[in-house]
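Morning F.,

Quick status update on the modeling queue. The single chain you submitted on Monday has been processed. Sequence for confirmation:
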Amino acid sequence: LAGDPALAGDPALAGDPALAGDSSAASAPGGEKGVLVAENLRYDFEREEVVAQGDAVLTYRDVTIRGEELLINLEKNLLTGKQVTIEKEDTSFTGDNFIYNFQKDRGSIDNYYSFNWTEDNEPLIIQGKRGEIEGDLTIVHQSSLTGCDREKPHYHLTAKKVEYYPDDKIIFRHLFYWEGGVRLFYLPVMVVSLKEKESNFDQPVVGYNDYDGFYVKLVYRYFMKPGFYGLLMVDWFQYSGLGQGVKQYFPLEGEKDLFFNIYHFNNYRTGGQDIQVGTGWSHKLGPLYDYSLD
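Structure tokens below.
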């Protein structure tokens, strides 16, 4: 930026070593500093705005923001970018029309898209019409989620709103489960724990036979507090019906669990509503053996 006429005569920028080599270090509210690097950096005095163009990269706290062009309004403490990629720890997402207020620690982004790998080395793809950032919390509106990385995933979830709390949980509100283009079931709210080592979802079982037609069996594991957990079960059979059930476990002493389950089946063949209720207990005898009584 040496000799840039846009900066000439400005006592705050003249000879500032932080600007050498097309990089800039600026203090954010509260005294925190960010580093901005780009092929071209200039300061718009009229708008009180730093303009970074060409592979612009801003590092602020533990976040890295990349874009072809980034604008920082110093008067309003506002960062904007048309097409950006945001990286934080082991996650990243992209989108358009990014706006972030440093002072309020809040922002928004259109056409939210993230592709990450789970601890089980499975893909996790989340897309949304709009994303909102409030501190560590990320909220995605009109979203879809899938673990299938095909161009046309064979299954996916859609939700009116997804709330992502890092290292804690993901909350889905007004959730639908889809198999291909067929919407199978609805849940008003679903919480996925990020604290448990065990995966919340079992692999969906999809198949076909002459009696049931196409069928899908889905099991979701939920956690309430240490030792207290349960299963949500949803079974859909093209010709036979739709089943929904809950199995709740209660811990006892000595590696024993008491459980209670209820299962409802909407029978397409008879037109009836079948209900099964049961209870039982299980006992672990070590890493290899256990037994149960239903």
